[in-house]
Amino acid sequence: MAKKVRIPIKSAADIRKMRIACETASDILQRCAKEVKPGKTTGEIDAFAAELMKEAECDSAFLGYRGFPGNICISRNEEVVHGIGSDTVICPGDILKIDVGITKGGWIGDNATTVPAGDIDTETKRLLCATEQSLYEAISHARSGNLLADLCSSVEEHVKQYDFTVVREFVGHGVGRNLHEEPQVPNYRPPGRSPKLRPGMVLAIEPMVNAGTAGVTILSDGWTVITNDRKNSSHFEHTVLVTEGKPDILTARPREATEELLGIKLNV
After folding, report:
1. End-to-end CA, the chain
2. pLDDT tens-place string over residues 176-234
């Protein structure tokens, strides 16, 4: 018999503290995203994130986690997630996935976005739009009484209509005092019985979507995940509180900023 998963429930006091951490993480992510420009290095953006964390009196939730060497994850083009800032120069037409996780007051805030460096081609715009739309589709299911499996499956169902694929080896997760808590939140329907969502559950929902095949490989640095066919990948993430009513996006950021960045109206 499968082991029953115990999903932490946050109290109102917990949520107040976590909201502060999430708002801080969102602010740092948005400010880092504005630094993505051709000619800059990924290491410079990582260093900028470290400065912002010091300014905000918070710590990176990633630095040193299982030995990870970066302050943020910054992944370029075919790199899916867990990229490490380096002397790699950002080129026109690149896309950068920026994932910011911080600890403040003992609580985690975790969020990610994908940012184009200058103009990008139409197909890459479609990839970014479809991925972010799938995130908000999943978030719409984060209501008490809904099945976690329905939230998860909504991501794959959304992106496959564009002939995109979801990464299966890496998934979203519960989040709170720890970076990774129960439950796992894959971007496809998980097998077996699904738990029902309850108020007070907090989920890091993070679609990782590939333009080509779903297969991925970890590079020799032990961290950076790339697509097997070297086609682009896109990643968006929010920390979301399950409620009786409308889901509460704790890492909320203006949607208009993404629309302006991509030059496309997002259909959500």
Report:
1. 40
2. 999 999 999 999 999 888 999 999 999 999 999 999 999 999 999 999 999 999 999 99
- Strand runs (DSSP E) across the chain, as ranges? 59-60, 73-76, 95-104, 107-116, 165-166, 172-174, 181-185, 202-205, 208-210, 216-218, 225-227, 233-235, 238-241, 248-249
- The answer to whether the CB of 76 falls within 8 A of the CB of 94 is yes
The C-alpha atoms of residue 69 and residue 62 are separated, in whole angstroms, by 8
- What is d(CA 185, CA 268) in angstroms, rounded to the nearest whole number? 21
Cα(187)–Cα(218) distance, rounded to whole angstroms? 19
What's the rounded mean pLDDT across residues 39-47? 98
Token duo for residue 191 = 């097998």
Q: Which domains does the chain have, with CATH numbers?
A: 12-262 (3.90.230.10)
Residue 17 near residue 24 (C-beta atoms within 8 A): no
Q: What is the pLDDT of residue 263?
A: 56
Q: What are phi and psi of 140, to 5 degrees?
A: -60, -20
